[in-house]
Amino acid sequence: MKFVAFERAMQGTGASRRLRITGRTPGIVYGGTGETTLIEIDHNALWHAIKKEAFHASILEMDLGGTAHKVLLRDLQMHPFKQQILHIDFQRVEARTRMTVKVPLHYSGEEESPAIKTDNCLVNHVVSELTVSCFPADIPEFIAVDLSGLKKGSPLNVKDITLPKGVKFVAKGQVNPVLVSVTPIAVEVEVAPVVDAKDAKGKGGKPAAKPAAKK
After folding, report:
1. Above 70 in pLDDT, residue 198?
2. The whole model's pTM is what?
């Protein structure tokens, strides 16, 4: 995926504010053998780009001053309530350096699984993306996860899926986290109320005496 950026000379809060007023978004490019470079990007073009999944999880080609650079999106700062991108960070990509990236998970097949078709279970996607480590050329746009084999009482963990070649899961706290949970749906059964025979007939099992009519 390609996008165009321009070098900027001014930095600081005031300069960034003035830049946003003109319809540009300030950003930086860092890492690799180069120094940190201040950049600016057309906000409208960037706004449409961030809506695409590939912009967040694949190597991007940045045209900066007529020169192509391979970069990865590293940080995106949004305005708390406006539809505005305040700042964006990119990291240069080096072919022989392993990188840690977040890759989205694409689930499919759950409607055909025994958990839903026969076991009356609720399937919940606990994790929507994985943090992985790999070389730039091996970064997948997404990881496909087949749920057609899900069964009652059998959640899906990281170790249950096959990662693309050259891709390793990066554990952050949990070595084998749950990706998908499977929960049985409780079935409500209506129970008829039980009437005590004594309550129905009065004490001793005999019908309760009717009150005497007033004269």
Report:
1. no
2. 0.76
